[in-house]
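Translate sequence into C-alpha cells.
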Amino acid sequence: AAPIYAGPATSHTLTGGLTADTQFILMASVTGNPGQDSPSPGYAPIFLFDALNVVIADPDLTPRTVAAKGNISTEAKVSAATAGVTGEATAGQLRAGAVTVTGGAPSDALTVGSTATPVSSQLNGPLTVTGATTVQGLTAKTNVAVDGTLNVTNTTTLGTANAGTVNAQAVNVNGPGNSLYVRNGGQIFIDTGDRNAAQIFNTSRRAPAGWFQNRSVRESDYVTGVVGWVAQTSDIGVYSNGRIAAGGGWGVLTHLPTRDGHRVVTTPLSLQAQLHLSGSARLAGGRAQVTFSEDAADLIVSSSEHPYQVLLTPAGQCNGLAVVMRTAGHFVVEELAGGTSDVAFDWMVITRQHDPDGPGVLELPAQLPQALMPNPQDGSEDHQHQS
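Result follows.
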C-alpha cells in the first residue's frame, strides 16, 4: 500500500482528522553520493523505523451513512445519521437520524432485536418502510411512513405515522390534532386478552372522551352506531356511572320471545324521574295494610310536596277500593261503602326518584346536553351538535 505521505517535510496534516485510535509507522532514510565516497564506492542507504500511537479521548464512532445492497448483520448497536437498506439487515440496536427500508420481498427486511433480548430503536429523522421492518421498541420523533408492514413488540412512540400495517405491543402517539388517523376504509383492531381492550382519557370540560359517527343513512335492519357484544345475554353490554341520553326520541329497545317469534318492546317514557313498585295483597274484613320491604322503603319519596301514587286493581267483586293512608313504609287500603269483603287486589306504586347528589327529588334537565363534535380534519373542536 502507498504511504500516507512521503517526502522531506518534517510534518504532515491528515485531511479529515482521526475518528478512532490509530498507530502510525514512521520510516526515515539517509543516503549519500557514491561518487564521493571513500575509501570505497557503493554507499548503502540507512533506514530508521519507529511507531507513533495516537489515542482519541472522545472518539466519534458513528458513521454518517450506512447503505447496503447485501445483508447487514450485527448483534451490537448500529448508530448512523442515515441508514438505507435494500437487502436484509439485522441489528441488536438501531439509532439513526433516518432509516429507509426499500426491500419488497419477505427477506428484504430490517430486524432489530430479538425476543430474548429486548432492545429499542430511536429515530431522529423519518422512517420510510416499503418492505418489512421488525423492531422490539421504536421511538420516532418525526414522520413514519409504512407501505409494507411494521412490527413492533414493545412500546412505540411516533410523531406522525402514515402506515399500511403497524403491528405493535404498545403505541404512544403525541398530538395535538388527530394523533391516530385511519383512512381509506382501514380498521383499528385491538385484541388484548384478559385486559381492557381500549382506555380513553381526557380532561376537557366540554369535549367527550370518545366520539363515534357513521355518516351514512342506515340500510335495512343493521346497527350503524356502536355495538357492545358480550359472551352471553346475561352479561352487561353497556355501563356508565352517569346518565345515559339518546336524542332519537326513543326509549331503550329490546325484543322478547313469543310463540310467533320475538316482539320488540320499549321502556315507558315519562316527564319525571320515577320509580315503579308493584305487588299483590288481600283484604281482611274490608281492610289491608301493604308494608314495603326496608330496601324498597328507602327508595320511596313520601312527602306532602311529592306524595307517591298507588294504583289499585281488585281481583274480584267488591264495592271498590280506596287508599286511606300513605307513609314511607306502608299504605292502607279499605273497601268503599263500609264493605267487609276479603277480595284480593293488585297494586302499583309510582314514586319520584331521590336525587343521588343531594336532598330532594331528581329533576330532568330542560334539554339534552350538547355534544361537541370534533373536526374530522385535525381533531380540533369544530361545532356543537344538539341531540
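Note: Residues 104-108, 114-119 have pLDDT under 50 and may be disordered.
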